[in-house]
Amino acid sequence: MAAAGKRNTGRFRDPRHWLGGLAAGEVFVRCPRCAERASVLPCPEELADGTRHDVWLRRRLSCLGCAYTDLWDAPRLANNARAFPELSGPNDPYFGLPLWLSTKCRGRVLWAYNAEHLNLLETYVSARLRERGQHMGSQTLVERLPAWIKNGRHRAEVLDAIGQLRALLA
């Protein structure tokens, strides 16, 4: 991937990430109390367990600005199975809070869960040649991007919006 803030004009090969994999780590959200940046992370005590899928791990929301905290646990369905988090934006899949990394672009919302997600979007959008990689159906994040992001004619606008989001990480 391209370094942060460095625009790639060459080739992009789909690394075959799926959205759930990017949401399994840190997700930046807007704090419900102070509206500053907060983080949603897997609870450390659950990481060593290894018995559950990453997206089902208990999550802790914490804001360094106002010390707000909250816990999330995957809801149970009628058959006692765990419900799958809603993996779509511009809200986080666990608490349903607005994502910190979201901005208007072309009359829609461009969003990312974290810096890794933002880097992937920037590398893809800035590339002149985009290769799909090995077949994985339509389950990779890149294959599921909306057409307005994929359209090369929108490259400059989308990259400007990505730059705005990157500034929020500073």
List keywords for this structure.
4-stranded antiparallel sheet; 5 helices; alpha+beta; two-stranded parallel sheet; 170 residues
Low-confidence stretches: 1-5
Tell me the major beta sheet.
4 strands, antiparallel
- Global outline: globular
Number of helices in the DSSP assignment: 5
Radius of gyration: 17 Å
What structural class is derived from the secondary structure elements? Answer: alpha+beta
What is the residue-mean pLDDT, rounded to a whole number? Answer: 86
Walk me through this protein's architecture.
The protein has 170 residues and is α+β, with helices and mostly antiparallel strands. It has one domain (11-169). The protein is built from five helices and eight strands, in the order E-H-E-E-H-E-E-E-E-H-E-H-H. The strands form three sheets. It has a four-stranded antiparallel sheet with strand order 2-3-4-5. The protein has a two-stranded parallel sheet with strand order 1-8. A hairpin with a 6-residue loop joins strand 2 and strand 3. Helix 3 packs antiparallel against helix 5. The two termini are 19 Å apart.
Give a quick precis of the structure:
This protein has helices at 19-23, 44-47, 115-126, 147-150, 155-169, and strands at 11-13, 27-30, 37-42, 59-62, 69-72, 101-105, 108-112, 129-131. With 170 residues, the protein is an alpha+beta fold.
Secondary structure: elements and pairs:
Blueprint: E1 11-13, H1 19-23, E2 27-30, E3 37-42, H2 44-47, E4 59-62, E5 69-72, E6 101-105, E7 108-112, H3 115-126, E8 129-131, H4 147-150, H5 155-169
Parallel strand pairs: 1-8
Antiparallel strand pairs: 2-3, 3-4, 4-5, 6-7
